[in-house]
Structure formats: C-alpha cells, structure tokens
Design a protein that fits this description.
single chain, about 60 residues, mainly alpha
C-alpha cells in the first residue's frame, strides 16, 4: 500500500495541474497570435499538444501502479 501512494499523488498532481496548463497555454498562444509571431492554427495546435501531453502523463503514472 505504501508504494502506491506516490503514484496516486503523481496522478493527482498532474490532474490538478491540467486546468492551469490549459489556461497557461491559452494565454501564451493568445499573446503570440496578437503579436503576429504565430498564426491562429499554430496556437490552437500548441494548446492541443499541451493537453495531450498532460493526459499522457496522467495515463503513464496511473498505469505504473
């Protein structure tokens, strides 16, 4: 039981950080699009990649148990 607690805490930590990661990626891409450094579709792809990576980490830590 004691070995599963760190895994559960990792999954919980990643799950709690998901909304923050989405908001951070959104405001970052919004700033880059407004300055004209990237196009809108690239910013959307950036958000999708961040969300997919966080979900991948959640699944990875959950399956390690």
């Amino acid at each position: 039981m004691s070995q599963s607690k760190p895994g559960i805490l990792k999954v919980l930590g990643v799950a709690v950080s998901l909304p923050t990661a989405i908001l951070g990626a959104y405001f970052f891409q919004k700033m880059l699009v407004q300055k004209g450094w990237i196009e809108n579709w690239v910013g959307t792809a950036l958000i999708v990649v961040v969300v997919a990576y966080v979900l991948y980490l959640m699944i990875k830590y959950a399956l390690k148990q």
